[in-house]
From TrEMBL:
SUPFAM superfamilies, alphabetized: ALDH-like (SSF53720)
Organism: Paracoccus onubensis
Identification of the protein by name: Betaine-aldehyde dehydrogenase
PANTHER family (alphabetical): ALDEHYDE DEHYDROGENASE-RELATED
The family this protein is said to belong to: Belongs to the aldehyde dehydrogenase family.
Length: 481
């Protein structure tokens, strides 16, 4: 078995692979630390060139009939599905996530986005506004060049979620994947070209923060869509504001998952495990503050401790593995520091702990309080903090006592309570008796510090287009002079 994942070149500009002229960017397989590809960052000149190429190509793409653009995306979705196995393997090498996950959750989710927006293309229309003799209409127009900047946890899904609505609206895109996971976006560029996308409409540059910052402030860029942490979001939003650029910010979270006494305990445990341990906990919308009502607390924790034993940690390419390594040693170190702080501040471990090497096992804290660092800060690893509560009003107040506002979940059999509680939670994406499912049909996004704008669904179209209003005079013009 070869672990060579070297692409044709590091960047993709103007419809062809181009070697980067910036610093070295080795790609390491998180499971073994082995170098699987050796890339180079884009130089400042190459970032500017990618944006110029995109700006030049964009008007002709925007002039096509929307259905023609949609067809390209639909074809790309079909190609991804044909190659899902090979692409998923690459995603596993890039991220270290178990192949069991990447086969169903990464490129497949990207294909769903391309398919959805491809199908939507022909039905995106404006409004006709009758005004008596005169009338007005609106046109939904592209923004121009959109910059996409990705995080490392779902690299190919993020690239597709940003590219699909942007391209269907007639924009061009320059995408910078995370420096940790640069490979999937290059495959997407090849696939889109093969599906009929004109050269220059989807470009990929590589690099670290500096390259991202250059992209976010390039004079040819009209919109910046970032998936990343809150601190990065603040910087990118501020940089984009200088040029009055549009933004979408998909940032971090510390989301509450509230389990009431009457919840189905088995399903609630399943959801809490998925909400904390899938992708080794490296998911922005994870329900990492699990609030347990007194009456269900003990049964929930007993069952959780039992079921954690079923987690299979190990080789990500083994189809039986359900828990992979952490993306890199630095991130594993941050997670371990968070676990240590939980113990220092008096929380107890139900299971798990710091682990060894690249692996951190599913870790559950009990006896935690709202003030502890493990309850307040995003850990971005497989660490669940459980907290007790007495009543509805109390748990809503405590769930909302955070600067984050990405997601929230409620488990209860009481129909009215479910909707009443959800209505009061400060979160952009919520689940009732479910968690972390993000179908493309449903808008996904955040409130408060966790971001703004929406991905997926028809709502995403608004964030990759602008409205032009046109007043049509049907008679003479009355003037007082
Ligand atoms: P990060 O913020 O470190 O980096 C994200 C991206 O921004 C990377 O491509 C990075 O190179 C780039 N970047 C960093 N500094 C920049 C700057 N000053 N200007 C421009 N670009 C810059 O995040 P990460 O560690 O890659 O990912 C983990 C974070 O992402 C977590 O906080 C997680 O919650 C969040 N996330 C959010 C979502 C969502 O949809 N809301 C999805 C996945 C991950």
């Amino acid at each position: 078995m070869t672990l060579n994942a070297q692409p044709a070149a590091s960047l993709f500009i103007g419809g062809r692979p181009v070697e980067g002229e910036g610093g070295a960017l080795p790609v390491l397989y998180p499971y073994t630390g082995e170098e699987i590809a050796s890339l180079r960052e884009a130089s400042a000149g190459q970032v500017a060139e990618a944006c110029r190429v995109a700006a030049r190509a964009q008007p002709a793409w925007a002039a096509l009939a929307p259905a023609e653009r949609g067809r390209v995306l639909s074809r790309a979705a079909a190609i991804i599905r044909e190659r899902n196995e090979e692409l998923s393997r690459l995603e596993t090498l890039d991220t270290g996530k178990p192949i069991q996950e990447t086969l169903v959750a990464d490129w497949e989710s990207g294909a769903q986005a391309l398919e959805f927006f491809g199908g939507l293309a022909a039905s995106i229309t404006g409004q006709m506004i009758p005004l008596g003799r005169d009338w007005a209409y609106t046109r939904r127009e592209p923004l121009g060049v959109c910059a996409g900047i990705g995080a490392w946890n779902y690299p190919s899904q993020i690239a597709c979620w940003k590219a699909a609505p942007a391209l269907v609206m007639g924009n061009a895109m320059v995408f910078k994947p995370s420096e940790e996971t640069p490979l999937g976006a290059l495959k997407l560029a090849e696939i889109l070209l093969e599906a009929g996308l004109p050269a220059g409409i989807f470009n990929v540059v590589q690099g670290r923060a500096e390259v991202g910052a250059a992209l976010a402030t390039d004079p040819n860029v009209d919109k910046v869509s970032l998936t990343g942490s809150v601190p990065t979001g603040r910087k990118v939003y501020a940089a984009a504001a200088e040029g009055m650029r549009h933004v979408t910010m998909e940032l971090g979270g510390k989301s509450p998952l509230i389990v009431f006494d009457d919840a189905n305990p088995e399903h609630a445990v399943s959801a809490a495990m998925l909400a904390n341990f899938y992708s080794s906990g490296q998911i922005c919308s994870n329900g990492t503050r699990v609030f347990l009502q007194e009456g269900i607390r003990d049964a929930f924790l007993d069952r959780l401790a039992e079921r954690v034993r079923n987690v299979r940690m190990g080789d990500p390419l083994d189809p039986a593995t359900t828990h992979g390594p952490i993306i890199n040693p630095a991130q594993a170190g941050k997670i371990r520091a968070a676990i240590a702080s939980g113990l220092e501040q008096g929380a107890r471990l139900l299971c798990g702990g710091p682990g060894e090497g690249a692996f951190i096992p599913p870790t559950v804290f009990t006896d935690a309080s709202d003030e502890m660092t493990i309850t307040r800060d995003e850990i971005f690893g497989p660490v669940m903090t459980t907290l007790g509560f007495h009543d509805e009003e109390e748990v809503i107040t405590r769930a909302n006592a955070t600067g984050f506002g990405l997601a929230a979940g409620v488990f209860t059999q009481d129909l009215t309570r479910a909707h009443r509680v959800i209505a009061q939670l400060q979160a952009g994406t919520c689940w009732i008796n479910s968690y972390n499912l993000t179908p493309v049909e449903m808008p996904f996004g955040a409130v408060k510090q966790s971001g703004l704008g929406r991905e997926n669904s028809a709502a995403a179209i608004e964030h990759y287009s602008q409205l032009k209003s046109v007043y049509v005079g049907m008679g003479g013009v009355d003037a007082p002079y």
